[in-house]
Write a structure and sequence with these properties.
49% of the residues lie in helices and 0% in strands. By secondary structure, it is mainly alpha-helical. The chain has one domain: Cytochrome Bc1 Complex, Chain D, domain 2 (Orthogonal Bundle). The N and C termini lie close together (8 Å). Bound molecules: protoporphyrin IX containing FE. Protoporphyrin IX containing FE (HEM) binds next to helix 2 and helix 3.
Length: 57
């Protein structure tokens, strides 16, 4: 998550993009493994998580 925060530092649209990716899943950014969808996480919680992750350093 430190690496995620460093990668998107200064990217104003990162929180929204990551919040969507947390729920939808996706791949091709960090390696060959894809992240499965996490639809048990609400949109509001995904936004909170994404915003928090981007503060980790
Ligand atoms: C609520 C739980 C989770 C959160 C908040 C979360 C968060 C994230 C974030 C922020 C990224 C970076 C995405 C990017 O840079 O585009 C990521 C990537 C990834 N996550 Fe998760 N994740 C969660 C659950 C999981 C689970 C359960 C798995 C596997 C069982 C998983 C596997 C992965 C993988 C493989 C990637 C790399 C995907 C890529 O290369 O694009 N994640 N996750």
């Amino acid at each position: 998550m430190k690496e995620v925060a460093a990668k998107y530092k200064g990217d104003g649209s990162a929180a929204e993009m990551l919040a969507k990716k947390i729920r939808a899943g996706g791949g091709g950014v960090w390696g060959q493994m894809a992240m499965p969808p996490q639809l048990q996480v609400t949109e509001a919680d995904a936004k909170t998580l994404a915003e928090y992750i981007l503060t980790i350093n």
